[in-house]
Amino acid sequence: MSKAAVCVDFSKPLEIQDVEVRQPGPGEVLVRMVASGICHTDLHSTRGDWPVKSPLPFIAGHEGVGIVEAVGEGTIRKVGERVCIPWLGYACGHCRYCVSGWETLCPNQIQNGFARDGAFAEYAVVDGNWCGLVPDNVSSQDAAPLVCAGVTTYKAVKVSELKSAEVAAVWGVGGLGHLALQYARIAGGTAIGVDIAEDKLELATQLGAEHVVNAAATDPVKAIQDLGGADVSIVLSPNETVFNQALAALRPGGRLVCVALPAGGGTLSVPIFDTVLYGKRIIGSIVGTRNDLDDTMALHAAGRTKVISMGVGLEDINHSFELMLAGKIPARHVITEF
Ligand SMILES: [Zn+2]
Ligand SMILES: [Zn+2]
């Protein structure tokens, strides 16, 4: 049996239950969880907030880190390896997206913690070929947030094509934002942290942001335009207003990278005239590939990123969700007790 936080109803808190652990089938691995990060996506998916919903009941969690305890036939993973369980739990490998390095867009994909049970449990059975390896010198608690928050923002900076002389505004300095700022600086860019909480802006400064903007105290569009405008705006806050502000804060040639997923889907209103005249681009970016995940881990193993997190128990998960909704989480809660 495995203790798990199960979503039984979108309108109810997660239930801590003992669930059956099945043996891994072909291609699968059985992972004993050591750490499991709690992402904003888990909050939305377990409340049924989006146009697409997981069938009930299900176990969320897609920032899992654990030890392989058993393997099925035909997986590259081995017993004893420390692996991670990311959102992208399978892609077909044959479609036009998979063969062109865009496995994240595969129409046949299966997401861990959504289409298949995920990492909010003592044990998970997932596709072994889609589990990344965690480098030896990266702690499990650090690794967990990298599995979604890290890879997602690493990818967002990558698709933004941020150059060393450019400025990136990061909208929302939480679990994703605190890493996005660091990847923007690793790419050589200047980083602006935007948030509505002073403690998060202090964190942004500690992590190297050259500028911070408190969007509750000042008009962030004006503040950023006063600095010359942003070449890149990365939106990590699931708030429609923020998407519109992030677009308006761009300078000519700027790129808006949409990462957060607002409840209900969300709508962005785009002024066509400005978009054409100023050559602006709008890019959607969803998680990252297995290569991106390996890159994210390698950067951390090389000491180039810092993960801010707090360990919690599996039983505390509903409390973590409440704190997350209230914006009171210092970057990331990671389940370290199961
Ligand atoms: Zn996530
Ligand atoms: Zn595919």
TrEMBL record:
It comes from the Bacteria. It catalyses: a secondary alcohol + NAD(+) = a ketone + NADH + H(+); a primary alcohol + NAD(+) = an aldehyde + NADH + H(+). Residues 9-335 form the Enoyl reductase (ER) domain. InterPro entries: ADH-like_C (IPR013149), ADH-like_N (IPR013154), ER (IPR020843), GroES-like_sf (IPR011032), NAD(P)-bd_dom_sf (IPR036291). GO terms for molecular function: alcohol dehydrogenase (NAD+) activity; metal ion binding. Keywords: Metal-binding, NAD, Oxidoreductase, Zinc. Its EC number is 1.1.1.1. It holds the Pfam family ADH_zinc_N. Its cofactor is Zn(2+). The keyword Oxidoreductase applies. Belongs to the zinc-containing alcohol dehydrogenase family. This is Alcohol dehydrogenase. It comes from Antribacter soli.
